User: What shape does this take?
Amino acid sequence: MTFPSAPAAGLDTTSPAQRAAALRALHVPGHPLVLPNAWDAASAALVTSAGFPVVATSSAATAAVLGYADGEAAPVDEVLAAAARIVRSVSVPVTVDFERGYRLPPGELVERFTGTGAVGLNLEDSDPATHEMIEPARQADFLAAVRAAARSIGADLVINARTDSFLRQAGSPAQQLAGTIDRGARYLAAGADCVYPIGVADFAVIGQLTDAIAGPVNVGYGGHGERPLAELAALGVAGQIRPASRGPVPWSMRIISHPPRWPGLADLVGPVEPGTPDDVAGDGGDHLIEGETVGQAGGLVDGEELEHVGVRPV
Assistant: This one.
């Protein structure tokens, strides 16, 4: 099973609108988009140097390198500044894990978020501080307001509606499934582009979700044992397969002294030439020391999780 190493043919990515179109076009049923997480400019450059067509951030990883806990503890100004640095460092679309919007009103959220140059964002439906589920109608109204605010300023955002029924164990397994399907339908109707039921690992349940939700379904990867990604594609997963993260690891010196050589990466994106430190940094290495610690596990830096997706650091 292979995945595209660049945005779809014929799609320009020079403007935000074109990058949003490219990101949306990469959500193809049976050909899922694999997104290892990044947390700063250096890790984003590492992702793109490995051939991935999109950079996706992790809120937990970004918060950690900024010196805060996950759960909207980081000041939104710092989160947005980190996103802007990532966008400046790469030439591919960037989608940001934006938790539940950092308590910003929809209009302000869109205005400030689009200022970073990022074109996609996750918005979750549980309270980041309390972990309580947000009432589905209220969350749908919030997503609709974000979409309306974007349209009002001529901005195109790819909204990934994360739903947390499985993660928060909201009811019995049957209730979690029914709740996720209901929420997915509401969120797509409100203007979301795709639905991300985080915390679901059972392949049979994933198949039920892709059958019942009339839009791209994204999943996290790493909790599925050694079963191949082809099985997820066969289930109809069309969206972002996000390799699991497990928290901070001190990886700065490994990146600098051992540039990425991952023979299994061809399973995901096709042949990739071995990199050099300059290749990883993208501009002579400056991003490696731009004031952020390269040391938070995303999908790329956790060796055990990498092996789940056929990527083996050597």
User: Anything to note?
Assistant: The chain has one domain: 16-308.
